[in-house]
TrEMBL record:
PROSITE patterns: NUDIX (PS51462), NUDIX_BOX (PS00893)
Listed name of the protein: NAD(+) diphosphatase
Record-annotated Nudix hydrolase domain positions: 149-273
Catalyzed chemical reaction(s): a 5'-end NAD(+)-phospho-ribonucleoside in mRNA + H2O = a 5'-end phospho-adenosine-phospho-ribonucleoside in mRNA + beta-nicotinamide D-ribonucleotide + 2 H(+)
Cellular component aspect of the GO annotation: cytosol
Lineage of origin: Bacteria, Bacillati, Actinomycetota, Actinomycetes, Kitasatosporales
EC numbers, comma separated: 3.6.1.22
Family (UniProt): Belongs to the Nudix hydrolase family. NudC subfamily.
Highest taxon above the source species: Bacteria
Organism per entry: Streptomyces lydicus
Gene Ontology biological process terms in this record: NAD+ catabolic process; NADP+ catabolic process
GO molecular function, one term: NADH pyrophosphatase activity
NCBIfam families: PRK00241.1
Pfam families reported for this sequence: NUDIX
Residues passing through the membrane, by range: none
Length: 299
C-alpha cells in the first residue's frame, strides 16, 4: 500500500475517489471489523463506499498498485458483510491472522480511529475540532491550531550477558509463568537508547553496555511504536524491582526451550515483537509441547 500522503489535502480528489467503483472501504466500529476466510487465508471484508451506513467518518488509507483508493470508515455499527462467510474480529485476534497488506491497513485504521475517538476537542481552548487531511489532521476553528495523531515510542530489550544467556521477566500483573522481555515508554527528552538503559536498570537492576535496534512494530493500542533492541549486560547481576517485575531470570537456550516445552514458561504470542526478539536470540521457533500448550497471550 502507498499511503499517498500528498492526496490527503486534495479534497476534490478524495471526494472523487470515494465515488469510484473500484474504491474499497474498511469499516471499523470500536476497534472491530469483519474478516473473511478464503483459500489463501484470512482477509479483511472490505466493502464499497455505497455499502457504508450514514453518519460515519472516513479516513484515507492510501492506494494500491492499480491506483485504487482505500479508506477506513469509523461507524457505530458495521455494515452487512459482502457475499461469503464473514466474522467480526479485532486487530489482536489470533484466530484469524491477516496477510501483511491487510494487517498494515488495519493497524493504520485502528490507530486513526483510536485517536479521533479521544480528540474531538482542542486541548488548548476546548472547542470542537474538525477532521481534515484525509483523517490525519484535526483542526480547531476557534484558535486555528492543527492537531496530529500521536505516536508514543516504547522500547523492548532482549538483554544478554557475557555467557549469552537472555534475561526475561514476569510482571507483577501477570500469572507467574508468563515471561517476556523488559520494556517501557521513552520519556520526554530521552533517546530510545537511554530508555533501554533506564528501563533495564529500573525493572531488572541490570547495567547495560552496547545496544542495537533490530526491529520496530506499529502497536496501535492505542498509538504506540515499539522499538526492539538487543542489549549487552555489563554483568550478570539482576533483581526484580517488585513493582513492575515480580521476577527476572537468566536463561540459556536449552533451559528456555525446556521451560517453554513443559509449560513452565509462556512467551507472548508470536505475532508480537517481544516474542520475535526472543526467538531471534534463540535461533528459531520456541513452542510448547502439545499437551502443555495454553492459550497465547499478549502484553
Amino acid at each position: 500500500m502507498d499511503r499517498a500522503a500528498a492526496r490527503r489535502e486534495d479534497a476534490g480528489w478524495l471526494r472523487a475517489a470515494w465515488e469510484r467503483e473500484n474504491t474499497r472501504v474498511l469499516p471499523l466500529a470500536g476497534g472491530r471489523t469483519r474478516v473473511s476466510e478464503g483459500p489463501d487465508g484470512w482477509r479483511l471484508a472490505l466493502v464499497r463506499p455505497r455499502d457504508c451506513p450514514p453518519g460515519g467518518t472516513r479516513y484515507f488509507l492510501g492506494t494500491d498498485g492499480t491506483g485504487a483508493a482505500y479508506f477506513a470508515y469509523a461507524t457505530g455499527r458495521l455494515p452487512a458483510p459482502p457475499t461469503g462467510t464473514a466474522r467480526v474480529a479485532a486487530l489482536g485476534d489470533g484466530d484469524c491472522p491477516l496477510g501483511d497488506r491487510d494487517h498494515g491497513m488495519l493497524v493504520h485504521a485502528t490507530a486513526l480511529e483510536n485517536w479521533h475517538r479521544n480528540h474531538g476537542r482542542c486541548p488548548g481552548c476546548g472547542d470542537p475540532t474538525t477532521v481534515e487531511g484525509g483523517g490525519h489532521v484535526r483542526r480547531c476553528a476557534a484558535c486555528g491550531v492543527e492537531h496530529h495523531p500521536r505516536t508514543d515510542p516504547a522500547v523492548l530489550m532482549l538483554i544478554t550477558d557475557a555467557g549469552d544467556r537472555c534475561l526475561l521477566g514476569s510482571r507483577t500483573r501477570w500469572p507467574a509463568h508468563q515471561y517476556s522481555v523488559p520494556a517501557g515508554y521513552v520519556e520526554p527528552g530521552e533517546t530510545a537508547e537511554a530508555a533501554v538503559r533506564r528501563e533495564a536498570a529500573e525493572e531488572a537492576g541490570v547495567a547495560i553496555g552496547a545496544v542495537r535496534c533490530v526491529e520496530t512494530e506499529a502497536h496501535p493500542f492505542p498509538g504506540s511504536l515499539m522499538l526492539g533492541y538487543e542489549a549487552d549486560a555489563v554483568s550478570s547481576d539482576a533483581r526484580a524491582d517488585g513493582s513492575e517485575m515480580a521476577a527476572v531470570r537468566w536463561f540459556t537456550r536449552d533451559a528456555l526451550a525446556r521451560a517453554v516445552r513443559t509449560g513452565d514458561v509462556a512467551l507472548p504470542d508470536r505475532r508480537y515483537l517481544a516474542r520475535r526478539l526472543v526467538e531471534r536470540w534463540y535461533g528459531g521457533p520456541l513452542d510448547p509441547a502439545p499437551e502443555s500448550a495454553g492459550a497465547p497471550w499478549t502484553e
